[in-house]
Structures are given as structure tokens and as C-alpha cells.
Amino acid sequence: MLRIVPMLTPDASARREVEAYNALFTARPTTLPGVAALAEYLQEATDRTRIDLVLSSGERALSTVTDALRVILATREECSRHEASLVGMLDLASATIDELQDIRDLADAVGGVAYAYTWGPRCGTRRGRYGAIEPNGIGKLMHWLGDALTEVESAAELEVWRRAPGTQVDRETRLSMCAVTTIDGGDRDAIKAFAHELLAHAEAELEGR
Question: N or C: which end of the chain has fewer CB within 10 A?
Fold first, then answer.
């Protein structure tokens, strides 16, 4: 059955746009993202209907509020991501080098188990000719946990790199932790610097330092 859609006249179209614009002023958002969205809509509608090239005081104020809301929401989102991160829950700066090694090793072990679980039958359905896994909720959780613990490993190693080892034991721990990552990274300058540090350690050992 053919449905005939009535065409709006230019006047009717303009009237509907004005009604939609006026409706924005009666909206009452209940969340901060809603307030930001309303401000965005109002600014966009004002830009479309402006006649003068120079912004009015009200339009400048609306633009300022909209920009401020964008910054607030972006800051909140960044804080939320940080709070959800396992790295953000750890005070790595206060940990000793031995503690950082323990954190790195445990994160590596538990993260490896989490990744292994993502291939199990309880974490998804095996599909496709190459046996790819379509993860379910548990599978997605295990994968997130593996990724989060990998971030902990990297953060622990980075914290060790920042340290100047004060004892022979700390020096050995630092070299042991960073050897594989440095060599696998393939950065020639980093490998060269690591080789110099390793040579200095060998000389200190010979001298009993």
C-alpha cells in the first residue's frame, strides 16, 4: 500500500523549528551529562538562527558555560578511568624495589591465568573455522583482568626504571626486572644504556661494592 507523506510548506517547517527551539527552554535535565547536552543543543540552535556576525553577551556566556561543562565531563571521565584501574589502587611510589618485583611477578602470574581462562568454555562460545572465541560476560571480565594486570606489570617496571638503586640487592633486582623488557623492546639506545649499567654492576661486584 502506497503511503502519502504530506509535504511541509516553508512556513510550517520554520514554525516546527521554532517550536522545537522553544521546547529546549522547558527541558530540565537531571544529570550533568544532560545539562551539557542541553547547553550544546542551545548553542547549536543559537548559531543556526543568529543574524548578526558578532556574538551577543548571552551567546558568549552560553559558549563559556558549554566549554566549562565539556572540561568537567572530560575530567570526570578521566578520574573514573583512573579509579577503575588497578594501577590507580596501588601506591607504587612508596614500594621498595623488592616489593615492586613481587607486584610485577604476581601480576604476571595472575594475568596469565586470566588470559588462559578466556579460552575456556565458561568464558564464551567457540565460533568460526579457526576456533575464535565469542566472549560472554565472564570472558570479557577475564580479558579485562588480564589487561589490567598487564598494566600493573608495566607500571611496576616503569617505577623501577625511575629509581636509583641504593644497594647491591636493589641493583641486581632492577637489572633482573628490566632485562627482558629492554631487550625485547628492540630500542638500541635503551639496550646500549642497559649494557653500560650491567657492565657497571659487574665492575662493582668485582670490587665488592
Answer: N
133 phi, psi to nearest 5 deg: -100, 125
Cα 208 from chain centroid (whole Å): 46
Nearest to 137 by CA among 124, 149, 125: 124
Distances (CA, A) of 157 to 40, 105, 177: 43, 10, 7
Q: Using one digit for the tens of pLDDT, what is the confidence trace for 11-65?
A: 666 677 677 767 766 777 777 777 778 778 777 777 766 666 677 777 778 788 8
SS3 3: coil
Domain boundaries, the chain: 13-84, 89-162, 164-209
* Predicted TM-score (pTM) above 0.85: no
- Per-residue b or e along 105-143, where b marks 16 or more CB atoms closer than 10 Å to that residue's CB: eebeeebeebbebbeeeebbeeeeeeeebebeeebeebb
Nearest Cα residue to 141 out of 126, 162, 124: 124
